[in-house]
Design brief:
The protein is 48% helix and 10% strand. It is α+β, with helices and mostly antiparallel strands and 409 residues long. It folds into four domains: 156 residues, Beta Polymerase, domain 2; 84 residues, Hydrophobic Seed Protein (Orthogonal Bundle), CATH 1.10.110; 107 residues; 44 residues, no CATH class. The longest helix is centred in the N-terminal third of the chain and has 17 residues. Bound molecules: adenosine-5'-triphosphate. Adenosine-5'-triphosphate binds next to helix 8.
Length: 409
């Protein structure tokens, strides 16, 4: 039975997007290749979700087709990826379309990026390489505007049944990042992971020492944690999928502290995705995580560990200020989340922006000889300022005159 998605095509896309797709389809017929809307866009049509990207599979060479299209129609190629034979095109209306040559993929090891081959293969062989049945759907565009659904793996019914299903038993072995993708789609759409798929997922997670590259995993973990939903972290822990890359994550995140840091009035807002990530890896030896962490990410993790390790009682505002002033804001926030140390809130909301207005030059003008003791003098002023006793520069000057002796005196 054939199913037309003409209505969705007409109602869910902007006029500009429809025009760009129709121009692509007309020219594909002239060029002599079949093209298809593919993957997420088709899934989102059926689910009546907002359409984000327009992906088109070309049963031929997508780069050659994009070059042909841009020679016939007002549009421009803005990106080409030779190795995967893909091309991105932008139309004067601003609509962008990603064209990808159909291809097959061969996995040479678990988690290792697959080798692409047989470019321009038929669509059925292309969709075989995809992650879940719900992402294998296509709409043929070179078919005189019938917009019929092409469904080789029962993805349409799986969308109706809200099921996430892999295509073959080795799927997670080929690409373990699919485990996190499954969780992402489950959370995003409120779907269930199909029982067999779920069991294969658990089976994979039980394999010890999964020595695989984590590049794809890192990007999927980030996307998973972009979902703004209650208890998203705890469900990730429950799924045990953290076992792909670490073994001893923080189990529960304190909700009221999380809300507190989300609503703090500070210039650099907490990076929630990264905060969750740190909670996963904070207790692991991150050098063995193969995550390709950036220098800043490593610095933040080290600082949080240091704070947790040296959590000594702070005596006064000056000590609090000095403990956190040179640290990365995100590290301070994560430390608070994990420790509940209220000094952090005091630092961020009251102390952080404290500035001494007196300069070294001012001290010289007041008769002090330049020396190392200047830093002690500044500490004395800073302490008073942090305690709220001095506000203006004049008050600082009076304080210095009344309280600090010159060496010669
Ligand atoms: P969204 O962009 O809404 O997150 P999407 O399905 O478009 O969803 P992408 O990550 O952009 O997701 O991937 C595009 C398509 O590529 C998917 O629909 C899927 O068919 C395929 N794909 C992506 N990642 C994998 C993977 N790890 N294994 C197999 N196929 C994948």
């Amino acid at each position: 039975m054939s199913l037309s998605l003409k209505q969705e095509f007409e109602n869910m896309l902007t006029k500009e997007s429809r025009l760009a797709i129709e121009l692509s389809a007309d020219n594909a017929m002239i060029f002599g290749v079949d093209i298809y809307l593919i993957g997420g866009i088709v899934r989102d049509f059926i689910m009546h979700n907002k359409i984000k990207d327009i992906d088109i599979a070309v049963e031929g060479d997508a780069i050659e087709f994009a070059e042909f299209l841009s020679s016939k129609v007002r549009c421009r190629i803005i990106q080409i990826q030779e190795n995967l034979k893909t091309a991105k095109i932008i139309f004067p209306s601003g609509v962008e379309i990603d064209f990808a040559s159909t291809r097959e993929e061969i996995y040479t090891g678990s988690g290792i990026l697959p080798k692409a081959h047989n470019f321009g293969c038929n669509l059925k062989n292309d969709v075989k390489r995809r992650d879940f049945t719900i992402n294998t759907l296509a709409i043929k565009l070179t078919d005189n505007k019938k917009y019929e659904l092409v469904d080789y793996f029962g993805g349409y019914q799986d969308i109706l049944n809200k099921k996430i299903k892999i295509l073959h038993e080795k799927s997670f072995i080929d690409d373990p990042s699919r485990i996190i993708r499954a969780l992402k789609f489950k959370e995003r759409f409120d779907f269930e992971i199909d029982e067999k798929t779920y069991n294969l997922m658990l089976q994979y997670l039980k394999i010890p020492d999964k020595n695989m590259p984590l590049e794809r995993i890192k990007s999927e973990v980030k996307q998973y944690f972009s979902i703004d939903k209650e208890d998203i972290y705890e469900r990730f822990i429950e799924s045990e999928s953290y076992k792909l890359f670490c073994d001893n994550p923080v189990q529960v995140i304190n909700k009221s502290r999380l809300n507190e840091i989300k609503t703090l009035n500070i210039p650099e807002k907490p990076d929630i995705r990264f905060i969750y990530f740190v909670c996963l890896v904070i207790n692991s030896d991150y050098t063995s995580l193969r995550f390709n962490l950036t220098a800043r990410e490593i610095k933040i993790i080290n600082q949080v560990r240091e704070f947790l390790f040296c959590n000594t009682e702070k005596q006064d505002n000056l000590q609090i200020y000095k403990s956190y002033k040179d640290a990365d804001n995100q590290a301070v926030l994560i430390y608070y989340l994990l420790s509940g140390d209220k000094n952090v809130i005091k630092f961020l909301s009251e102390l952080k922006n404290t500035e001494i207005l007196t300069t070294g030059k001012d001290l010289i003008e007041l008769g002090f000889k330049p020396s190392k003791s200047f830093s002690d003098i500044f500490d004395l002023i800073l302490k008073e300022k942090l305690d709220g006793k001095l506000k203006t520069k004049e008050e600082e000057t009076v304080f210095i005159k009344n309280n600090i002796k010159k060496e010669s005196e």
